[in-house]
Amino acid sequence: MIKAEHLSKKFGDKAAVNDISFTIHTGKVTGFLGPNGAGKSTTMRLMLGLASGEGVTLFDSKKLRDYAKPSDLVGVLLEAKAFHPSRSARNHLKILATQGGVPLSRVDEVLDIVGLKEEAKKGPGKFSLGMSQRLGLAAALLAEPKYLLLDEPANGLDPEGIVWLRNFLKSYAENDHGVFVSSHLLSEMSQLADNVVVIGRGKLLADTSMKGFIAGNVGTSVFIRVDGLEKFMAFLDKQKVSYIKKSGGLELDKAKTDFVGKLAYQAKVPVLELSMKTASLEQAFLEVTAGTEEYQGREIKK
């Protein structure tokens, strides 16, 4: 596992990262979330020793600098445009492979994996952001590392590319690897990540499973639509069960479908619709990070 312990970093008097500790496990994708300016990129640089600060990050109980070949352990994508613009994509990867002691045959393998095989001879200076992200991911994958640390790898990818990235990272993690990935695409992260680390204004807000994060911060509710709504409402009032009228039916907060179904049976009203309403990652994220946004927009009044 990767253990980040008491990471801190100041820029002048401002604490960009403030005593953050969390764990990244193999076999899982860990999502890294936070508003703009929360300190996500700085945290990742601290973990890799690319920024000075306090605290320590242990990769399988050792500091990254203590490994003879760190790239064998950790593949990194922090900047989408980290390449010479006129050198071909293949030659860019060949240089990295030579530096890392990776067989050159691996270059064409990773180009194929990320979908850039047909673009291998082109200079990436004119690559789109999505293509640049794919080249950056190819570089991270060269040594088939145990861990991947990826900062916003889905930026610039089209919908098909995002689905491909999700499936690839999940598959990579399942093969006893650990993946740590930041993203602002909350709907995508909810489908990708097993665990989640959330920070705001440099402070740790959550380090838990995705399911635990959502369930622990936003409750579920049950929606029911019946034939005889007024009768059912009168029955619920008598039973002192709270509800909200919504979309031609009722919504009962913090309830289960079994409980609500039994209430309808006792009230002797036919059930037309009964469903559990599960909270979203977006709801939980906004709840937890409320007040930690670095930049806040203003709504236009009508």
3D architecture notes:
- By secondary structure, the chain is of the alpha/beta class.
- The protein folds into two domains: 2-216, 3-Layer(aba) Sandwich (Rossmann fold); 220-278, Alpha-Beta Plaits, CATH 3.30.70.100.
- Helices cover 36% and strands 27% of the residues.
- It is built from eleven helices and 14 strands.
- The protein has helices at residues 40-48, 70-73, 89-100, 105-113, 129-141, 159-174, 186-192, 210-217, 229-238, 257-267, 281-289; strands spanning 2-11, 14-24, 28-33, 54-59, 62-63, 74-77, 147-151, 178-182, 195-200, 203-209, 221-226, 244-246, 249-253, 271-277.
- The strands form three sheets. Strands 6-7-8-3-9-10 form a six-stranded mixed β-sheet, sandwiched between helices.
- Strand 4 and strand 5 (62-63) form a beta hairpin.
- The model has no long low-confidence stretch (mean pLDDT 91).
Short description:
This protein is α/β, with parallel strands linked by helices. Helices cover 36% and strands 27% of the residues.
Which key features would you list for this structure?
302 residues; alpha/beta; Rossmann fold; Alpha-Beta Plaits; 2 domains; 6-stranded mixed beta sheet; 4-stranded antiparallel beta sheet; elongated
